[in-house]
Every structure is written in structure tokens, then in C-alpha cells.
Amino acid sequence: MKFLAALRLSAIGMGLVILAGCSAISSLDSAAKPLETYELSPLPAGSNHIRKGRRLLEVAMPTATGALTSDRIVIKPTPLQVQTLQDARWIDEAADHVQLLLVRSLANSGKFALVAGAGSGPSPDYVLMTDLQAFQAEITDEKVTVEIRSSMTLLSDSDGTVVSSRSFSNTVGAADTSSEQVIAAFDVAMTQQLTDVVDWLVGVPGL
């Protein structure tokens, strides 16, 4: 009887080892699977795109929470829960991607003589600071809504004084939970926010 009991325990132990091995292999397979890579669109230049401004603008790297400092696409099933799309990623970390979209969109506006990221151009006249507060898809009652929310401050580079500041919030519903539809909603929301940002800066007196 003791022999049979020992044999059963041995068999159970071997089974657990095999299951653990299968789980590890499954995790490796999942990690090795390439993710679809996505990028959003900056605002295009106008048909009569002429640089009318003489000012130099520097777009600082946006500040963001840890969830937004990676290239994964954030999903929030609840206000306190953070997940990511399993099969998709951004082309860059989210904060980097937003910075580049701002640089290209503001450059295409023709408002400034030069728009550059931090440290990549000559000494600027103004610096645009961005606090990226939300860049995610939220799931509520089986509905998916993309939210992009940020707070921006325009500083004079000469003395650091605040020239203007404004908060932006744009939400767009996704048709379904597929990556393609979620990304499409991100692109619409980002286009809306970039348009609002450009309109705001173009309207700042004396800029």
C-alpha cells in the first residue's frame, strides 16, 4: 500500500512538472509573438503652407504616469485597473509619440519659423510643456471610448514666465473592441486634440 501511495504521489509530481513546463512554453510563445505596430497621424500642412511666424518653439517631452511611458496601448476596464491590448503596440513610447505628433502638427501650421523637440534645435523663444493625463481606451457597459486628456503650458524661454495655459480633453467611441477600431478611435481623438492645440497657440496674442 505504501508503495502504491508513493507511486501516486510521484505521478502527481511528474504531472505538475509537465504542466509547469507547458505553461512556461506557452508564455514564451506568447512573448515571442510579434505585436502589430501602430502610429497616429499629425495634422497635415495646408495647401498654401507658408511659414509666417518668426518665433522658435520647443516642444518638451510630455510628463506622464508609468502606464503611459511604454509603447503598449493602455486599456482601462475600471477607473483603477490598467491593462494593455494584447496584440498591438505604439511605434514609440506613448509620451514620445505624442511629442512627435505635436512637433509635426505645429510645424505644419506655419505659425512658427521652427518647431523642434527638446534639445534638438537652437535656443527657442517659447517652450511648450505638456502633462499627458490620459491616453487610453476605457471600457464601460460593453462600450469602448478612447480618451486623450492633457494640460499644456506655454512658457517664455527668456525668463520662464507663463504666456498661456490650457487643458484639453477629447473622447471618441470605438465601433468595437478590435485593435483596428480602437486605434481608429485614437486617431480621430488625437486629430481633434492636435487641432485644438494648434488653434489655441495660433490665437495667443503676441506669439
Query: What percent of residues adopt helix (DSSP H or I)?
Result: 25-40%
Give unreliable regions as ranges.
1-31
C-alpha end-to-end distance: 90 Å
Beta-sheet strand percentage? 25-35%
Mean pLDDT: 84
Tally the helices. 3
Major β-sheet, in short?
A: 8 strands, mixed
Give the overall form: elongated
The SS-based structural class is alpha/beta
Order of helices and strands: HEEEEHEEEEH
Q: State Rg.
A: 24 Å
> Can you count the beta strands?
8
3D structure, described in words:
This protein starts with a helix and ends in a 5-residue tail after the last helix. With 207 residues, it is of the alpha/beta class. The longest helix is centred in the first third of the chain and has 31 residues, at 2-32. α2 crosses α3. The chain is 34% helix and 31% strand. The protein is elongated and about 50 Å long. The protein contains three helices and eight strands; from the N terminus they run αββββαββββα. Strands 1, 2, 3, 4, 5, 6, 7 and 8 form an eight-stranded mixed β-sheet that branches. Mean pLDDT is 84; it is low at 1-31. The chain has helices at 2-32, 94-109, 179-202; strands at 36-38, 56-59, 72-76, 83-90, 114-117, 126-140, 143-156, 162-173. A hairpin with a 2-residue loop joins β6 (126-140) and β7.
